[in-house]
Design goal:
Helix content: 25-40%
CATH superfamily: GTP cyclohydrolase I, C-terminal domain/NADPH-dependent 7-cyano-7-deazaguanine reductase, N-terminal domain
CATH class: Alpha Beta
Distance between the termini: 20 Å
Strand content: 25-35%
CATH architecture: 2-Layer Sandwich
CATH topology: GTP Cyclohydrolase I, domain 2
Number of domains: 1
Largest sheet: 2 strands, antiparallel
Strand order of the largest sheet: 1-2
Structural class: alpha+beta
Radius of gyration: 13 Å
Number of strands: 2
């Protein structure tokens, strides 16, 4: 159930920012099952297209159920 939700968000939508993708995944995972009280999502992009030579860039988002 959770894996399918993540796959749907990642494959079905376009996100310009890692922060937006992580937030969308977290929000959708919380909505899929009322037993989930907290979710933490980490998203990493290998070799991001930035001026610096970075191996990866990432973001972590934690959300609490309302």
């Amino acid at each position: 159930m959770v894996a399918e939700t993540v796959e749907r968000v990642v494959a079905g939508e376009s996100h310009r920012l890692l922060e937006r993708l992580a937030t969308r995944i977290a929000d959708d995972v919380l909505a899929v099952d009322p037993r989930i009280a907290t979710v933490t999502v980490t998203v990493r992009k290998l070799r991001p297209p930035v001026a610096l030579d970075l191996a990866s860039a990432g973001v972590t988002v934690t959300r609490l159920a309302p």
